[in-house]
Write a structure and sequence with these properties.
This protein is α/β, with parallel strands linked by helices. Helices cover 38% and strands 17% of the residues. The radius of gyration is 18 Å and the shape is globular. The mean pLDDT is 85.
């Protein structure tokens, strides 16, 4: 992190981490959920009870939708599921730092599509769309990284917590099923394939 130009304080357990978070002045907190002494949830709660709106990025091996919803409800700003590439961690940190202090995102939008993270509800043109847990996670990832082309390997690691096997078409099948639900009956089409690279959700600017 220091080599990337950041000034960093490191806490190796939750007790020191909470002390630093509550007494220091930081532009961003990166929290591991599983910390000795006090876990990441406890630090998050303490920071938000102190009415600090500092952006918080969670690092976690827990990929269940319920865990991510819990974190967002408690006030986390972003999630990165292990294992992850350090370059992606840097990109997420820079994005949150640019955004500055903010409230956690509860709704994601593009065109007439809306995803309610807390209620786990998706609508388009006011019509409710029922998604499976994996489809919801896939759509959430696409919307959080709106305009970015996401590789199959990144999608596999973030949504399925697995290494991408080029011999499997699980990602392509999942995207195809998601498209059928959120794009097929609507205009404009939002989920696009970038040949040889991956998938992106975007809308052409008029």
């Amino acid at each position: 992190m220091s080599e990337a130009g950041f000034v960093v304080d490191l806490a190796r357990d939750g007790i020191d981490g909470m002390h630093l978070a509550l007494t220091g002045e930081y532009d961003l907190l990166v929290l591991d959920v599983m910390l000795p002494g006090i876990d990441g949830w406890g630090i998050l709660q303490a920071v938000r009870r102190a009415e600090q709106d500092i952006p918080i990025l969670f690092l976690t091996a827990r990929d269940r939708v319920e865990d991510r919803v819990q974190g967002l409800e408690m006030g986390a700003d972003d999630y990165l599921i292990k294992p992850f590439a350090f370059s992606e961690l840097l990109a997420r940190i820079r994005s949150l730092a640019r955004r500055g202090k903010s409230k956690p995102i509860e709704n994601l939008y593009i065109a007439d599509l809306e995803l309610d993270i807390i209620k786990r509800r998706v609508t388009r043109s006011g019509q409710r769309i029922d998604l499976t847990a994996k489809e919801f996670s896939l759509l959430e990832l696409l919307l959080r990284r709106r305009g970015e082309v996401l590789s199959r390997s990144l999608i596999a690691s973030q949504v399925w917590d697995m290494n991408f096997d080029s011999d499997t078409n699980v990602i392509d099948v999942a995207v195809r099923r998601l498209r059928a639900k959120v794009d097929e009956a609507y205009e404009p089409k939002l989920i696009r394939t970038v040949r040889g690279m991956g998938y992106v959700i975007e809308v052409d600017e008029v």
